[in-house]
């Protein structure tokens, strides 16, 4: 039983991709892709924090989820 709890906890770590269903203006396949964003002004030059957002992609086009 303990192993099942551990696996469940690990599955919740990190950012979950959005549902991109009907987000690409009828273009298919519409899939979620990570969109790393650079901070405007780093507060600490030694920080390795890089926020991660998500976009929906179809072909060469990106859409907001």
UniProtKB/TrEMBL annotation:
Keywords, comma-separated and alphabetical: Developmental protein, Disulfide bond, Secreted, Signal
Coiled coil: none
GO terms of biological process kind: guard cell differentiation
Domain of life: Eukaryota
InterPro entries, per database record: EPFL
Transmembrane stretches, start-end: none
Subcellular localization: Secreted
Broad class of the protein's primary localization: secreted
Entry GO terms, CC: extracellular region
Pfam families: EPF (PF17181)
Protein function: Controls stomatal patterning.
Family membership noted in the UniProt record: Belongs to the plant cysteine rich small secretory peptide family. Epidermal patterning factor subfamily.
Name of the featured protein: Epidermal patterning factor-like protein
Organism: Musa troglodytarum (fe'i banana)
High-level lineage: Eukaryota, Viridiplantae, Streptophyta, Embryophyta, Tracheophyta
